[in-house]
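Kindly draft a sequence, keeping tokens residue-aligned:
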Amino acid sequence: MRPLPSLIFASRWLQLPLYLGLILAQAVYVFHFWVELVHLIEAAFGNTAALKSLVSSIGYKSDVDVTALNETIIMLVVLALIDVVMISNLLIMVIVGGYETFVSRLHLEDHPDQPEWLSHVNASVLKVKLATAIIGISSIHLLKTFINAANYDIKVLMWQTIIHTVFLLSALAIALTDRLMSHSAPSSHH
């Protein structure tokens, strides 16, 4: 290869620190998840400090002072944990899929743990995957908001619902264009 094209092609390795950074962000998420989980378990055993920290982290307010775990708090904390897991899935998709698509092959073909979606990953598959993951995350957020609706302004509830709908429509649009493109170019699809 001539020097300039090979330099341009080699520049894809500049993305490597970005993916490594995302792996670190993933580690922070894992730590956060465990902190919340430990708080939940402590609160279940009657630790009031842990309970207070949970209540403040999920933004739950009630007229009476919360002295013990109730179903709403447990549900909100569990939803928050699911949220972390889903964002973590999103991170893995971006890290593994993005690296494989834009930087370098990972050569996972014969690996028993190769994720099903990676076998045919490309930029458009990744886009659809990310869109559906974002909808999942948005749904969990919406659910959290509605369970805790008393503590939110009507405007916030309305906007969250509108934004969620926009996410749904844009994901539909992405999936549709992807489908149309793969139909118009059957040769590129294996």
Remarks:
- The radius of gyration is 21 Å.
- The first helix runs from residue 3 to 10.
- The mean pLDDT is 81.
- Residues 1-107 form one domain.
